[in-house]
Amino acid sequence: MDIKRRLLSRTFIHAFLILGAGIMILPFVWMVLTAFKSVAESTSMNPFVFIPRIWRIENFVEVIQQNNFFWLYYNTIAMIFWRVVCALGFSSMAAYAFARLKFPGRNFFFGLVLFQMMIPVQIFIIPQYLMVDKLGMRNTIFALVFPGLVSAFGTFLLRQFFMGLPKELEESAKLDGCNIGQTFVWVMLPLVKSGLIALGIFTALFAFKDLMWPLIVNSRSEAATLASALAKIQSAYSVNYPRLMAASTLSLWPMMLIYILFQKQFIQGIATTGGKL
Amino acid sequence: MHRKHTKAKINEWFWGWFMIAPMMIGLMVLNIIPAFQTLYLSFFKVGAFGRGNIFVGFDNYMKMIHDDQVWYAVGNTIKYTLIVVPAIIVLSMIIAVLLNNKLRGKHIYRTIYFIPAVATPAAVAMVWRWLYNNYFGVINVFIKKIGLQSVDWVNDPKIALFSVAIIGIWSIVGYNMVIILAGLQVIPNDYYEASSIDGASPVCQFFRITVPLVSPAIFFVMITSIFQSMQVFDIIYMMIDVTSPAYDKTVSLVYLFYNNSFKYMNQGYGSVIVMLLIVIVMVVTVILVKMQRKLVNYM
């Protein structure tokens, strides 16, 4: 009796979870299928013609040719790379100092970090845009990286990681003749590797998804990112949905692939950002 | 001895200042000064590309108070938040609790549920716009097949905000589920065993053990999703054009900020809208901090 009931509840749980998984994944399946169809096929009123009759790659070819897709990949990767490097480098240094060193003004400076974290980012955008404009740096990689040069969130997150390490480590490093900088680089930094990975993933995801900033600052189409180019592509192709779906497939696959390959790091990284704050 | 001690102390000071310097200089230039600049700009009429600012006192603020669209945007933003946040909390909690069982294939489920979180909102909005399409979208074709009236998901002013909210919920449930699941996994199994011996039902265990012990994670999800929802932009920007009949019923504060600052290049007015957003966020923050003391159970 009990086994029967458990089996029934198991079946129910699986049915629910499979339904949910379907809702999560079917929009992407439909996107890919539409991308291989002709316009006529995509607007066929029979929804049960799911699979394209002929798998056409024309949509992909034309979307790539008409929208500088190679530049879009390059810009997006460059932006993510520099934002991750800056966030990890500057934040880990500052985080260590805030967590472990005593110096005048520490609480005041950390208060500024908290202020940045808590206030909506829109308050920074107009002056940041005016600065980039004044420097004559619009439509460059620098402009894309600019607001991500420092990460208050990263400083806060890594500080939590450093605070969790035992004090004895630094004392023994000091006895071995390390100065504070050496202790940081050789002893402490390797121990917060999981925090660095989490911050790297978080920063990369955030940069990849960002729409408003690249839209504002890099308005030339060859300077756009994958996300911001989609806005223009959408108005250019209007209702040619196979082309639009080809464009979104092209913009989504790199991050999806990276996620599938490193899913454990992604999920652990996100879980730790939740647990550490 | 004493002198050596102070020397070490001063050495530590210099290392501290040196290590926070790049971060703090960046923070000053990129964030702290700009925050005050935005406040300053809110009292000016800003010329195109920032040239020729004219001081206008509280004119921008007065204009905002009499601007219907601003109040639509406030209403829409609050409505969106009130739809999205409870849905996210309930759904991610349910899925996390189910996945916390010994279940075959739970890692595959977890992987799949997280997928929308690695997708660009711009692309996601485009895909959903296709699904929602009035004539050829799968959802409407399906609705018609089962004999119901098709729904104009994107352009019907009464429905569009819900359509946007569905995308918002769909995108982020998996992400928050992962955070709650991490909170669930640290609850010791003994608690459940001990209460089972005392005769507690699974429902009772859920409300008396699971919910209180995972409340920090739930609260974290609540805070982050409230702040994200109040700053919603990408999906609405991609889904609803300024010319759409549903625009007034869906425009969010940040979308309005974007349009005024960078489409109409009226950055003084854009700054005022930011100040309104800040005030609303601050009020919500105070409420949340008060709630935290009552609701959250830190182990």
Structure description:
- The complex is a heterodimer of chains A (277) and B (299).
- Chain A is mostly helical and 277 residues long.
- In chain A, 75% of the residues lie in helices and 0% in strands.
- Chain A folds into two domains: 59 residues, no CATH class; 210 residues, MetI-like (MetI-like fold, Orthogonal Bundle), CATH 1.10.3720.
- By secondary structure, chain B is mainly alpha-helical.
- In chain B, 74% of the residues lie in helices and 1% in strands.
- Chain B has a two-stranded antiparallel ribbon with strand order 1-2.
- In chain B, a hairpin with an 8-residue loop joins strand 1 and strand 2.
- In chain B, helix 2 crosses helix 14 and helix 3 packs parallel to helix 7.
User: What is the helical fraction of chain A, as a range of percent?
Assistant: over 70%
Helix content of chain B: over 70%
CATH superfamily of the largest domain in chain A: MetI-like
CATH names the topology of the largest domain in chain B as MetI-like fold
CATH class of the largest domain in chain A: Mainly Alpha
Secondary-structure blueprint of this entry?
The complex is a heterodimer of chains A (277) and B (299).
Chain A (H helix, E strand, L loop, with lengths): L1 H34 L3 H4 L15 H9 L2 H32 L5 H13 L3 H13 L6 H5 L6 H12 L4 H8 L4 H9 L4 H17 L2 H6 L8 H12 L3 H21 L1 H14 L1
Chain B lengths: L1 H40 L2 E2 L8 E2 L3 H7 L2 H32 L6 H9 L6 H12 L5 H8 L14 H26 L3 H9 L4 H12 L1 H16 L3 H6 L7 H4 L2 H11 L3 H29 L4
Antiparallel strand pairs in B: 1-2
